[in-house]
Amino acid sequence: MPLPDLDSSVGHSFGLEFDSVIIKQITEVSGLKMEQDVIELKQNTFDGKYAIKKLPGRPKAGEVTVTRGLTEDNSFERWIKDSRFGRMTNARRNGAVIVYDYEGLPIKRYKLINAWPKSLEIGTLKAGDTSVLTEKLAITYEAMELD
Description:
single chain, mainly beta, Elongation Factor Tu (Ef-tu), domain 3, 6-stranded antiparallel barrel, two-stranded antiparallel sheet, 2 helices, 10% helix, 54% strand, elongated
């Protein structure tokens, strides 16, 4: 569902989709960006003045971190085991970070190409604490496409 002109989206809900499996319980997504190198071309103009031109270079790989509450779902653990033991043909996957509106309809997809998990961090375990336990999965990717 596209957003009407001049309306901004609210980060209401997020999901992570890999291999047609959607995890909607994502509470935070950080580091999602598309970046490329900048090439500086130094030259003289026709009238002899020194000029620097900036040109687009190669795209850079990226890294995104997704956070969710700790549950019995072990999909993050299974995925990171593949990369830890060098089974990169199983670990590298194409997927997407999906942003949902307040009605649960997808409004934006950020496709991650050749993504694999770099690290899995479990939140602080503290006796007597009443905060929700979380797990953070750092995912590295070779390219990102907007959909």
